[in-house]
User: Which sequence fits this backbone?
């Protein structure tokens, strides 16, 4: 589904991502783990179009997408969430969700004034969709709250909700589980699995919680210091010496300091 | 009691009504500046001259209608010509955006570059307007001049002081209310308006959600052009049209937008009235007003005017500086100046 070839991303002298080649299978939930500063988020930013990589190529379904703009990728069904949850703080939760499908006819001034019926009908449809997403995520009680007032965990749910508003092909989740409580984490895990099974979403998720990764992800990719360290099933990863040294630790050793 | 009423009538006539009118004009102007700032993130110095351009086109259309004998007496013919002015100004703004600002957006320039580009646009528009219509004063108001004449008011109430309520004043206030209501309905209720707010709030996320930035920018310029033309025409009907005056209006308009909080539409309206009332209150001579209220022997000899009318622009400037020093985000929280 996604193929990455020799991807490099440099910020001045910092090699945030170095020569990464990997592929993500259609229908999988791929985990991406690694110590802080490993370059995971940077990799996502390159794939999702926030950064143009210094060099290397990215393919979506064998079509090159390197350097495309985020909204162009969005239109192709490639979605992402942010490590630091993003929201439209002055819109309500429902309005936030309803912003999502791009290119609504109500966005055009001409349609707004001249074809109100069409605009209204579209809005009704999107509202119904937003309501079902709100119900799915169990955030009905804050549906009309301004998104800026949500707690960190609720914002994460909203992030996931945003990806559910359209029929995505592949969704990149940057630490959706971080800062979310146990019960909610289970709900979130179930939601991801259901979307994967029932809607055919492919996921790639950055996560630090190894239990959560173990429950959902196969395969798991490990990055450290900008490079690919290992790839395999969760069992392979847990027993991989390099990974233990760089990230998981043996329980005696501390995690290494992130490279700056 | 009669003295008190006289004093009140006097104040209404020379302070309250004019300030409400001027405040409405400033509010409309500041709304345009604030919308552009909220979406495109720069202070559009060409706004005053955009107003002048829109007014100029409206004036030509008005003259055309007048010579064709079309009239909507008792209302000014300019109202009929307004759509022409608006259409031309919308086209102008979109063309300028395409040919100037889009280039800088593509090269991801910093806001100050946009600001300087807008200064360039300002000079060009300034020249264009003077070249076409000339630098002099133009009157284009017709129709009934007064809703209430001072004399009629005096007769009606038996007071010494009359309140004259000009058609242009009534028109300004009523139009401002309608325009503001429509604008807020648009921003809060329609999908286009919500995309604008979303874009202003979090540009990256908006792009990512598939909101087309170019479309949002187009809508913003359209609204700015509509507001600029309406504000300009109302001001022209109320006072008169002179290109230089419109350039000068830039200061109180920016002061209004910044006082209210740049990027905040509600703030722009509040700011408009704060600036207008300050200007009028400070430049009014209170001699007669006080004479009505205090015992005869205390009546002031001087004009009791805080600031001569010539310096009224200084008021905007002082308020602007104070706000920037004390509360840079404005009364309502804007995006910071
Ligand atoms: N825009 C940027 N400019 C300069 N350096 C950056 C930028 N973005 C990331 N970096 C650097 O790239 C490296 C990788 O950062 P990245 O955010 O990708 O790590 P990460 O794996 O997501 O870490 P974490 O687990 O803490 O989220 C870090 O050293 C970071 O300082
Ligand atoms: Mg990260």
Assistant:
């Amino acid at each position: 589904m996604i193929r990455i070839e020799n991807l490099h991303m440099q910020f001045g002298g910092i090699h945030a991502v170095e020569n990464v080649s990997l592929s993500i299978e259609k229908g999988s939930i791929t985990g991406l783990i690694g110590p802080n500063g490993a370059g995971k988020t940077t990799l996502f930013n390159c794939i999702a179009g926030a950064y143009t990589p210094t060099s290397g190529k990215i393919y979506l379904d064998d079509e090159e997408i390197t350097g495309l703009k985020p909204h162009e990728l969005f239109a192709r069904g490639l979605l992402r969430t942010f490590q630091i949850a993003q929201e439209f703080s002055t819109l309500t939760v429902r309005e936030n969700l309803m912003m999502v499908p791009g290119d609504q006819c109500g966005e055009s001034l001409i349609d707004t004034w001249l074809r109100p019926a069409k605009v209204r009908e579209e809005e009704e449809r999107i509202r119904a969709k937003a309501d079902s997403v709100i119900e799915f995520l169990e955030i009905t009680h804050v549906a009309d709250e301004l998104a800026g007032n949500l707690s960190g965990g609720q914002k994460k749910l909203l992030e996931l909700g945003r990806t559910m508003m359209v029929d995505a092909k592949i969704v990149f989740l940057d630490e959706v589980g971080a800062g979310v409580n146990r019960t909610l984490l289970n709900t979130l895990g179930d939601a991801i699995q259901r979307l994967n099974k029932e809607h055919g979403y492919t996921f790639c998720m950055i996560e630090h919680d190894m239990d959560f990764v173990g429950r959902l992800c196969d395969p798991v990719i490990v990055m450290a210091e900008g490079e690919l360290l290992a790839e395999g099933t969760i069992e392979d990863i847990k027993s991989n010496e390099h990974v233990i040294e760089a990230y998981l630790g043996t329980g005696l050793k501390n995690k290494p300091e992130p490279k700056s | 009691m009669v003295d008190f009423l006289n004093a009140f009538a006097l104040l209404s006539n020379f302070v309250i009504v004019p300030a409400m009118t001027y405040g409405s004009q400033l509010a409309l102007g500041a709304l345009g500046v604030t919308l552009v700032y909220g979406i495109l993130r720069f202070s559009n110095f060409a706004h005053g001259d955009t107003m002048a351009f829109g007014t100029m086109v409206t004036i030509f259309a008005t003259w055309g209608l007048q010579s064709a004998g079309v009239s909507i007496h008792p209302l000014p013919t300019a109202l009929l010509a307004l759509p022409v002015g608006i259409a031309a100004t919308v086209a102008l703004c979109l063309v300028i955006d395409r040919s100037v600002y889009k280039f800088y957006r593509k090269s991801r320039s910093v806001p100050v570059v946009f600001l300087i580009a807008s200064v360039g646009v300002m000079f060009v528009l300034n020249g264009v307007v003077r070249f076409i219509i000339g630098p002099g004063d133009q009157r284009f108001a017709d129709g009934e001049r007064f809703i209430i004449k001072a004399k009629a008011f005096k007769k009606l109430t038996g007071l010494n002081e009359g309140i004259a309520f000009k058609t242009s004043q009534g028109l300004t206030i009523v139009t401002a209310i309608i325009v503001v209501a429509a604008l807020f309905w648009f921003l809060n209720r329609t999908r286009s308006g919500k995309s604008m707010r979303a874009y202003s709030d979090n540009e990256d996320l908006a792009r990512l959600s598939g909101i087309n930035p170019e479309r949002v920018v187009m809508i913003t310029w359209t609204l700015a052009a509509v507001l600029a033309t309406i504000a300009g025409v109302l001001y022209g009907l109320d006072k008169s049209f002179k290109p230089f005056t419109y350039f000068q209006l830039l200061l109180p308009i920016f002061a209004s937008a910044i006082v209210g909080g740049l990027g905040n539409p509600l703030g722009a309206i509040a700011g408009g009235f704060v600036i207008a009332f300050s200007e009028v209150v400070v430049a009014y001579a209170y001699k007669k007003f006080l004479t009505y209220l205090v015992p005869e022997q205390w009546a002031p000899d001087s004009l009791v005017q805080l600031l001569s009318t010539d310096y009224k622009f200084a008021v905007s400037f002082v308020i602007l500086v104070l706000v920037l020093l004390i509360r840079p985000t404005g009364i309502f929280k804007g995006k910071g100046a």
